[in-house]
Amino acid sequence: MKIAVRYYTKTGNTKRLAEAVAKAVGAEALPIGTPLTEAVDILFLGNSYYAFSIDPEVRKFIASLDKKMVGKIVNFGSAAMLNSTCKKVKAEADRVGIPLDEREFHCKGEFKGIHKGKPDEEDCKAAAEFAKNILK
């Protein structure tokens, strides 16, 4: 099974989660500016809410994906105020014909002093365990 991990972050929170996910599944965590160079069965995609939506860069990345290159997307991320980005990511994935796994990982993320220290080591362990369970 071929796995890729891509993430978008402004604060570093999602990068920490992406690194934990990547380590758990034997892949490398790379920013979304790094294109997929080979077909993958699973693309773990890390992102967050910025101004009540996913960042335009995440939208652009998903739009650039070739449905022949990605079996499915698995969403993960963190946010200080809002919860899951799943609906926003699904809408973009649907536009390009790539299925989004209904399972996702989400935790609180620090922003301007809110949820200080999040995601923490326990959150990263939980993200890694989530990723391992996806592969079962």
Q: What's the arrangement of secondary structure elements?
A:
Layout: E1 3-7, H1 13-25, E2 29-31, E3 40-47, E4 49-50, E5 53-54, H2 56-64, E6 70-79, H3 86-96, E7 100-108, H4 121-135
Parallel strand pairs: 1-2, 1-3, 3-6, 6-7
Antiparallel strand pairs: 4-5
Please summarize what this structure is.
The protein is of the alpha/beta class and 136 residues long. It contains 4 helices and 7 strands. Helix 1 (13-25) links the parallel strand 1 (3-7) and strand 2 (29-31).
What does this structure look like?
This protein is α/β, with parallel strands linked by helices and 136 residues long. Helix content is 35%, strand content 29%. It has helices spanning 13-25, 56-64, 86-96, 121-135; strands spanning 3-7, 29-31, 40-47, 49-50, 53-54, 70-79, 100-108. It has a 5-stranded parallel sheet, sandwiched between helices. Helix 1 packs across helix 4 (121-135) and helix 2 (56-64) runs parallel beside helix 3 (86-96).
Alpha-beta content class: alpha/beta
Please state roughly what percent of the residues sit in beta strands, choosing from under 5%, 5-15%, 15-25%, 25-35%, 35-45% or over 45%.
25-35%
Number of strands: 7
Put simply, the count of helices is 4
Largest sheet: 5 strands, parallel
State the order of secondary-structure elements, H for helix, E for strand. Answer: EHEEEEHEHEH
Q: Strand sequence of the main sheet, in spatial order? A: 2-1-3-6-7
Shape: globular
* Radius of gyration computed on alpha carbons: 14 Å
N→C terminal distance: 11 Å
The share of residues in helices is: 25-40%
Average pLDDT, rounded to a whole number, is 92
Low-confidence stretches: none
